[in-house]
Every structure is written in structure tokens, then in C-alpha cells.
Design brief:
alpha/beta; Arc Repressor Mutant, subunit A; Rossmann fold; 3 domains; 6-stranded mixed sheet; 13 helices; 14 strands; about 15% strand; elongated
């Protein structure tokens, strides 16, 4: 960086603006990749023949534009390449946000019901003149996952990456970006070992509310359909439910049916029917999304008294019209953009989306 000589016979503000322009040009011309470290403020000041105060002001300007990221005790790092502008036009940096879809989002058809709301919330918040969303299908991410993880960032000039799904399969990729200090935000779940900021659903609050609504008869005779309790968010749902029922001496592990999450295998219908006929439950609590298969079972067993059903999946999650009514919970998914903005602008690591209970009775 020996091309930073500037006229130092002007005030700090003008000097810092000129230095910021030269730094911006240097990053663009040298095509510095995101993650590249700039010289220290002291070295930049010496190269440009300005004070360290001026150098800090210039770095701050580029940080506010989203071109640089300043890490305490480490220095300044490139976040993305500056956009080229025509002569006479003021350079403006676009904040580029990558969004990795989930395995259940088919780009040739449509997003899953909950991710439609999440992406809509992100679009409402970030589709501004200075922000741009870059959507990556799950297959596109898989292609990047075969190589160096930072290629996804460098080739697309990303400032931040948002994951709609983050399980064991994605964890190693996310962790390697964490090691590079790249900003990432997780939605819905945080896998063990990851430290990224996350917008999660208030699973514990929802379960506590659900158990509080159950009648004494329902707490004595229930059936719970849950995913793998070792994975988030089922871990939180399972743990909260167990805690609440153990306090009442009504916990029965035999009444918890663990089934795989979507896409739901055909063989699960037979197991679901077996459990329904074994317990004849007063209430069925669906924590994973089996209401459609459950509806088929209950429709077939017409002589059995219909149980009260509560699900974490709203009726809109079904592929065809409902066969019966049930109560359900929803989360404020459309507000996710505001929560992500708060994570980007603050020091908070976790924010919880509130829930709403919907009764159709």
C-alpha cells in the first residue's frame, strides 16, 4: 500500500474522506478478498502521511459503509469489494446479505410454509437501496460445501450470512466461517458447538403455556409426537414438557412417540396408528408436524372418541384442506427481519420470537 500519499494541508474531515476514497480504490483495484486484513491504523497513517486520528476516521467511514469490519484487538478486515461507480457518481456500498434455504425448500416450486414467512420478513426489512438479499438454494450451498467455505463469501461479496436451517450437516461449514470471524445469524435452531447469534422461537414459553392449558384428564392421558430430543428445537420442546409434567408427577416417557422430521416417511403412519389405539389419548400434542398423517388415522378410526389435538404447525402448513379442526401455535415469523437487524446492530447473541395460541373451539 504505497499509493496513499495525500495532501495533508486540509482539515481532518476532508483528509479522512480522501483517505477513505483511496483505501476504497485500493481494495477494489487489488481485488482484496473478504477476510483480508488491512495494515494497522498506525501503518496506514504513516503511508498516507496523516495522523492516526485521521486514519481511524477513514477506517470508520468504510466500516459504516459495510466495506470493512473492525475486530477488537485484531485489526480491520475486508467484508466485500466496493462497487464500481461511473465518474461523477458518489460511491455507495451495498450491504449484501446471503440467505441459505433449508433442504425442504424447492426453488422450482416454493418455499416451505414457515420459510415463506421468514424470507418475507427479511425482504421487508432489508430490501432497501443499501441492502441486497442473495438467496442460495440448499443445493447451491452443498456445491460450496465441497470446497473452501469462504468461497461462498468471497465469490458473492457477502457481508453476513443467514441460515434458515442449521443442523449437524451444516455445523462444520458454519464453524469454519466462525473461525474466520465472519458474521452469521441462525434462524429457528442453534446446533451444539455453534456460537453464532440466533433468532429462535420461544419453545420453552410455548410448552409451558401448552401444559397450563391442559385439563387434569388430558395430563393423565396424553400422547406426544416429537422429533429427536437431541436436536434443536425438539430438545427444548421435549425438555420443557418433561419438566412441566414431572413437577405434576404426570410424566410418562412411554407416551412420547419420537418420529423423523419432514419429509415424513410412509411407515410412520402405521406406528402413529399403533400408539393412538394403544393409549386412546384424551389429547395428542404434535411437536413436529404430523397432523396430516394423524388426521388420516383418526378418520379411519371413526369409532374412537376424537382426542383434543394441539400442534405447533398451523393449518396452512398442510398440502390439502384439513380433515378436522385442531388448536395450534404460531410464532411471529414475519418479524424476523427486525430481530435480525437488532442482532446486526447490537451485542445480543439470542433473540426469541414470541408465540400465539390459536383456539378453533
Amino acid at each position: 500500500m504505497n499509493d496513499l500519499e495525500i495532501d495533508d494541508k486540509v482539515n481532518h474531515g476532508d483528509l479522512s474522506r480522501t483517505l477513505a476514497d483511496k483505501l476504497r480504490d485500493h481494495i477494489r483495484e487489488k481485488a482484496l478478498k473478504p477476510g483480508s486484513r488491512l495494515p494497522s491504523n498506525r501503518d496506514i497513517a504513516q503511508m498516507a502521511n496523516v495522523s492516526q486520528v485521521t486514519a481511524r476516521m477513514a477506517i470508520k467511514r468504510l466500516e459504516k459503509e459495510g466495506l470493512l469490519e473492525c475486530r477488537m484487538g485484531q485489526g480491520s478486515f475486508v467484508r466485500c469489494l466496493p462497487q464500481r461507480t461511473e465518474p461523477g457518481h458518489k460511491a455507495t456500498a451495498t450491504f449484501r446479505i446471503g440467505v441459505v434455504l433449508s433442504p425442504w425448500d424447492n426453488s422450482s416450486k416454493q418455499l416451505s410454509w414457515d420459510n415463506q414467512a421468514l424470507v418475507g420478513g427479511l425482504l421487508n426489512e432489508f430490501c432497501q437501496a443499501s441492502s441486497q438479499l442473495i438467496i442460495f438454494s440448499y443445493q447451491q450451498w452443498l456445491d460450496y460445501a465441497q470446497a473452501e467455505p469462504f468461497n461462498l463469501i468471497a465469490e458473492n461479496n457477502l457481508n453476513v450470512l443467514i441460515w434458515l436451517h442449521s443442523s449437524i450437516r451444516e455445523a462444520a461449514f458454519i464453524a469454519r466461517l466462525e473461525e474466520r470471524g465472519f458474521k452469521q445469524i441462525l434462524l429457528n435452531r442453534r446446533t451444539l458447538g455453534l456460537n453464532c447469534p440466533a433468532v429462535l422461537q420461544d419453545e420453552v414459553g410455548m410448552i409451558n403455556d401448552l401444559v397450563g392449558r391442559m385439563t387434569a384428564a388430558e395430563r393423565d392421558n396424553y400422547l406426544v409426537i416429537c422429533g429427536d430430543p437431541g436436536l434443536s428445537p425438539y430438545q427444548e420442546r421435549y425438555g420443557a414438557l418433561k419438566e412441566q409434567l414431572e413437577v405434576r408427577n404426570q410424566w410418562d416417557a412411554a407416551r412420547i412417540l419420537h418420529l423423523p422430521e419432514a419429509p415424513y416417511p410412509e411407515w410412520t403412519a402405521g406406528i402413529l396408528r399403533e400408539y393412538v389405539l394403544r393409549f386412546h389419548p384424551a389429547i395428542i400434542i404434535d411437536l413436529i408436524g404430523y397432523m396430516e398423517k394423524l388426521a388420516a388415522v383418526l378418520e379411519h378410526e371413526k369409532e374412537m372418541s376424537a382426542p383434543h389435538c394441539i400442534s405447533v404447525f398451523p393449518p396452512t402448513a398442510w398440502d390439502h384442506p384439513r380433515q378436522f379442526d385442531y388448536d395450534y401455535y404460531t410464532f411471529a415469523l414475519q418479524s424476523v427481519g427486525q430481530y435480525v437487524s437488532e442482532l446486526l446492530n447490537g451485542q445480543t447473541q439470542t433473540l426469541m420470537l414470541p408465540f400465539t395460541y390459536h383456539s378453533v373451539q
